[in-house]
């Protein structure tokens, strides 16, 4: 195996700078998930139901006489999580609309936006630690800890900013694999955060005499957020640069605002001017809306609208299960926090393997289009939901392996969207997608919470079976996109135009050399 030099190593880090940031920021956000679920449940169990510590510590495997407490705690917890989802997602709609224009107009601000978004997690963690130490406080007091992330729009900024940065740095033909790399980093955070979070909360390290080690989890989460903040400020200093000019020309991007070397021209303006510019109604809302709904050749706007709707349904179903998955695993499989972290990580490893193997296999080996790969991903995730809803036994995790290619879905969706518009509109399109995505957690939380609470006594798997039906529209949309890819895929259209031009030049020498006509006439006269 060839050795990697120090210079090559730092070159690799530079190439993956946004991926490393994405991993650290998502790790710090996901690490407290198990701790938060357990903290809410323990507060309800001990403070509201006045159960003793031994029952609350093993509530998921408690005797049948404690079923009423178990079901009550699970219902109260899922309800509070639903309210957390609502208050954290509604402001995202507003912040996302600001971001769309902001990122496109002032790309060098991106690293500061990403840095402050990660720093918001530190402030939130400090407030949660206070709630842990003062264990007697009402569980609904945890809603106040989300105030700072709400005001900074941290979640939306990290997602939209990261994928906009990657789009600006990557030619269209490589975006599927580039987004897959980002998704791999994202998938890597989930098993890492779940496993570490499950082990930390079960340990006595920094427990402060509490029922579990909530504080230790939030301290580790804060350390990850601090590292992500520093990384964004130091390493993401090229956010105002795009791919080289020759590559941009191939992507059919307007080059009027691009200088030599790919650095966009940006006039230096004052803080007041920037704020006024960002708060203009046309820049705040209309620019993103216009990007989606303006008429495009070959009815391209309808493909965009339909794809956004399909992604909306997919994300609502695919990501929404996080609202009840912890309580579902406790109720159905009787797992504790450590087991949930371990087996949950196992599933994410399956999806990560699918995300790693899928794009190279389907796109580069089998030469399938991105939309065809989306069909494979949708079928896989539908299968996973069906088996999880029908097989109420831990053996279901063996069958989940056959749905591993569900992991390609998120990356492929973003790649498809990025191919529907020129690069200088990607920020607005992703921002609009993030804005409507702000409604997703609300609807998915309402669906999963209410259906799970209504069926927890007799058929808790029904919530997954019904969710599988929702993938009908995304599947139909992917099929239509595959059959009509020459109408909406700008990169494919540009390649075909280039091939047609080259073919015309080969068949008609006059297009290549205007003097060819004189040479042909001269040759004919000599023959005569």
UniProtKB/TrEMBL annotation:
A GO MF term: transmembrane transporter activity
Main localization, broad class: membrane
SUPFAM superfamilies, alphabetized: MFS general substrate transporter
Origin: domain of life: Eukaryota
Keyword Transmembrane part of the UniProt annotation: yes
Keywords assigned: Membrane, Transmembrane, Transmembrane helix
GO cellular component, one term: membrane
Spans annotated as Disordered: 498-528
Protein's membrane topology: Multi-pass membrane protein
Membrane spanning residue stretches: 20-40, 82-103, 142-167, 179-202, 214-236, 340-364, 397-417, 429-449, 461-481
Gene3D superfamilies per UniProt: MFS general substrate transporter like domains
Localization per record: Membrane
InterPro entries to which the protein is assigned, alphabetical: MFS (IPR011701), MFS_trans_sf (IPR036259)
Protein's UniProt name: Major facilitator superfamily (MFS) profile domain-containing protein
Organism of this sequence: Tetranychus urticae (Two-spotted spider mite)
Gene encoding the protein: 107364075
């Amino acid at each position: 195996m060839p050795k990697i030099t120090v210079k090559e190593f730092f070159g690799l880090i530079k190439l993956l700078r946004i991926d490393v940031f994405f991993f650290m920021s998502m790790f710090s956000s996901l690490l407290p998930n198990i701790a938060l679920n357990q903290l809410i449940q323990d507060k309800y169990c001990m403070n509201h139901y006045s159960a003793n510590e031994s029952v609350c510590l093993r509530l998921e495997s408690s005797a049948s006489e404690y079923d009423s407490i178990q079901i009550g705690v699970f219902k109260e917890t899922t309800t509070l999580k639903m309210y957390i989802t609502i208050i954290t997602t509604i402001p995202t709609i507003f912040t996302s609309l600001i971001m769309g224009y902001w990122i496109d107009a002032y790309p060098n601000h991106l690293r500061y936006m990403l840095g402050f978004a990660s720093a918001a997690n530190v402030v939130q963690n400090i407030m949660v630690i206070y709630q842990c130490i003062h264990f007697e406080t009402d569980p609904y007091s945890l809603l106040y800890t989300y105030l700072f992330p709400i005001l900074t729009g941290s979640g939306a900024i990290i997602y939209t900013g990261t994928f906009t940065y990657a789009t600006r740095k990557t030619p269209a033909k490589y975006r599927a694999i580039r987004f897959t790399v980002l998704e791999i980093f994202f998938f890597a955070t989930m098993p890492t955060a779940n496993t570490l979070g499950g082990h930390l909360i079960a340990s006595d390290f920094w427990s402060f005499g509490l029922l579990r080690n909530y504080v230790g989890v939030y301290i580790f989460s804060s350390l990850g957020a601090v590292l992500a903040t520093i990384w964004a400020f130091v390493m993401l200093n090229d956010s105002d640069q795009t791919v080289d000019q020759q590559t941009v020309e191939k992507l059919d991007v307007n080059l009027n605002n691009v200088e030599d070397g790919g650095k966009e021209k940006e006039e230096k303006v004052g803080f007041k001017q920037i704020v006024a510019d960002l708060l203009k109604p046309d820049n705040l809302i209309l620019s993103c809306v216009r990007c989606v709904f303006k008429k495009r050749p070959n009815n391209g706007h309808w493909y965009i609208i339909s794809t956004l709707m399909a992604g909306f349904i997919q994300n609502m179903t695919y990501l929404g299960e996080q609202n009840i998955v912890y309580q579902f695993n406790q109720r159905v499989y009787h797992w504790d926090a450590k087991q949930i972290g371990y087996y949950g990580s196992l599933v994410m490893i399956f999806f990560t393997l699918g995300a790693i193997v899928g794009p190279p296999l389907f796109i580069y080996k089998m030469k399938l289009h991105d939309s065809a790969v989306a069909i494979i991903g949708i079928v896989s995730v539908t299968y996973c939901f069906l088996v999880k809803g029908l097989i109420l036994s831990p053996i279901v995790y063996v069958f989940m392996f056959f749905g591993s290619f569900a992991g390609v879905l998120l990356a492929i969706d973003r790649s498809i969207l990025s191919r529907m518009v020129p690069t200088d509109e990607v920020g607005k399109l992703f921002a609009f997608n993030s804005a409507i995505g702000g409604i997703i957690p609300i609807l998915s939380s309402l669906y999963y919470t209410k259906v799970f609470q209504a069926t927890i006594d007799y058929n808790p798997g029904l919530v997954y079976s019904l969710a599988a039906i929702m993938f009908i529209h995304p599947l139909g949309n992917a099929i239509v996109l595959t059959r009509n890819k020459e109408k909406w895929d700008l990169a494919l259209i540009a390649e075909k135009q280039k091939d047609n031009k080259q073919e015309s030049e080969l068949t008609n020498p006059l297009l290549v050399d205007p003097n060819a006509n004189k040479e042909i006439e001269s040759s004919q006269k000599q023959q005569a």
